[in-house]
Known about the structure:
The chain has helices at 4-22, 26-30, 49-61; strands spanning 33-41, 44-47, 68-78, 83-93, 104-113, 116-126.
Amino acid sequence: MATMTADQAVLDVLDALYSAWAVGDADGIARLYTQDATVIMPGVFHQGRDAVRSWFTAAFAGGLKGSTTVDESRQVRFYGDEAAIVTSVGGVILAGQDDVMRLVRATWALTRQEGDWLIAAYANAPAEAG
């Protein structure tokens, strides 16, 4: 059975991602993904760490420059010692705005590689109101 320490180790990866996001660090975000990671969002598919880095580099130079994130209602489930699924509700707050531009429900699949938890897959869809 997973312990709070194991839960926190997985959640620390997401916290590190959001810390890197807050300073526009695409390399810092990419380091948290596996080499063959997938990212799926409405209208978007990225395969691999380099694609994740490229997307965030362009996004932080464009529409996501100065943005922040919110992430709530995290649930962690473990499948053995090497795999975890995290579900959350979150979104992006654009620079100069106060409200989330689009609330999403997200699923994160993480795997432990050489002792470190990394994001192997991420997917989100618009959250339903209410």
